[in-house]
Design a protein that fits this description.
Elements (H helix, E strand, L loop, with lengths): L5 H10 L9 H22 L2 H4 L1 H6 L6 H16 L1 H11 L9 H26 L3 H15 L13 H5 L3 H10 L9 H32 L1
Length: 219
């Protein structure tokens, strides 16, 4: 986290002298950076989920979706264990907490749904199309800057705000942040994110069931 966190803060607030996000900016940054790391590392691991344990995946009788769920759970535990880092920065920077912190568990739930859905999509497709692993890494790199991690959804100018609302991470990061920065609440990205998480989860389940046999033959 340290390798990613200070760099956006320095570039945006010192080099370009731009006012993005909210003060204290370090809390604003970390409260989205931690779930981004959960998202990024999970999706990266999805690309190798079945290849890594190919023999076990072929021979076991347990549901193969466990390989996806295991990644989401393990990285999610790492995310929860990193929460004290956020608490420390919040305390020492004087960040204020409000009742909207109750949205934090909702954000966690939506992110789980999103990651499970993406995992059920990415994991089998990467077995069938090996080049997709490299493509996924490039997409994740671009998605970091296309997601409101170093800035808020409210900072997006028109028409990028309309486009950005369809990034499910926009609403999820909003829910993570409103407990510290209530002025960031915006209904549109939150509702769109919730709907998209449900759709992606359903699409992932359908795709996984359709591709399970071809994947087993390919492994």
């Amino acid at each position: 986290m340290a390798a990613v966190g200070p760099r956006p803060w320095f570039v945006f607030t010192q080099v370009f002298n731009r006012s993005v996000g909210e003060a204290p900016y370090i809390v604003f940054l970390i409260v989205a950076l931690l779930p981004w790391v959960w998202f990024n590392t999970s999706v990266s691991d999805f690309t190798r989920a079945f290849k890594k344990d190919a023999r076990l995946v072929r021979s076991t009788a347990i549901p193969r979706s466990i390989w996806v769920n295991r990644i989401v759970l393990s990285k999610g535990i790492e995310f929860l264990l990193s929460i004290p880092v956020l608490v420390l920065f919040a305390v020492f920077s004087g960040a204020q907490v409000n009742w909207m912190l109750l949205w934090f568990p909702v954000a966690v739930l939506l992110q789980i749904m999103l990651l499970v859905g993406l995992g059920l999509l990415v994991a089998p497709l990467c077995v069938l199309y090996s080049d997709l692993e490299r493509t996924t890494a490039l997409i994740l790199r671009a998605l970091f800057y296309a997601s409101p991690v170093i800035y808020s959804f409210r900072d997006l100018p028109a028409p990028f705000d309309t486009i950005g609302a369809f990034n499910p991470l926009a609403g999820i990061f909003t829910l993570y942040r409103v407990g510290f920065f209530p002025d960031l609440w915006q209904t549109e990205p939150v509702v769109i994110s919730a709907v998209m998480c449900v759709v992606i989860l359903a699409l992932g389940v359908w795709t996984f069931r359709s591709l399970e046999r071809p994947v087993l033959k390919e492994l």
